[in-house]
Amino acid sequence: MPNLIHYAIPAFLVLLLTELIFSELTKKHLYETRDTLSSLAMGIGNVLINLIGKSFALATYYFFWRYRFFDLGSAWWVWLLLLFADDFTYYWYHRWSHEVRYLWASHVVHHSSQRYNLSTALRQTWTGTLSGGFLFWAWLPLVGFHPLMVMTMQSINLLYQFWIHTEAIDRLPRWFEWIFNTPSHHRVHHSSEPRYLDRNHAGIFIIWDRLFGTFVPEDHRPTYGLTKNIDTYNPFRIAFHEWGDIVRDVRSAPNLRAAFLYLFGPPGWSYDGSRLTSRQLRERANLRRESV
Length: 292
Description:
It is a single chain. The protein has helices spanning 4-25, 33-65, 76-99, 101-111, 118-121, 139-143, 147-162, 174-179, 183-189, 207-212, 235-252, 256-264, 278-291. It is an all-alpha fold. The protein has one domain (4-212). Helix 1 (4-25) runs parallel beside helix 7 (147-162), helix 3 packs across helix 4 (101-111) and helix 11 (235-252) runs antiparallel to helix 12 (256-264). It is a multi-pass membrane protein.
């Protein structure tokens, strides 16, 4: 099956180069050479690994398709319904990728840059598909969406998200900002500041964040990266550092409950309380603001 992402790669590179030129002409200096090369390496690795991973995902979707409840066909309204169903699924997958450490171990890659530009959009996981993230979408072929349609819509969702990784665009018309994910909304998502942590998980439609209480508007330009940055440009370290940390934590866990929480609890959870989760960081920041 043709992968829309592969066809879009030349356009990605042209837009990236355009933003780089804009960055230098306006003295914004959005790019740093080593950081950009790391992001490109992560993107190339993601494409190569998914040559196998996507095939396995598609085979799994076909398995569920065999037991489908309905056969919805491919009329225009089915594509429109799938657009919302896919994006709804992406919202919850993305949200849980911030709330469950097993999923975060793959997703942390995308947040590991302290820069925010179009190359950051290409900083993708090497382990997301292989660790089973695609299973979140398995309900779609089960209810009657054809597997090829599901995979196509997943690519469309990712293609949309490329352009929102930029500081070159400030705010868009109010109606657009209310309905759709935009650079302003997604800058919030990439912030390491407590107020912005684990917010704005949207793919295409920001309405999910508004509905489920995870929306925060951008009121200042964020500080990007992780709450504890890994400070490396090594692609292998970027790809696997959190998996290594999980293994060390599980090995040192004093009991089975702690081992389970180190794997499936929120990122930042620790048995001795020496680290803080996003929720704890937000609560601590709120207490500081109230005490001022």
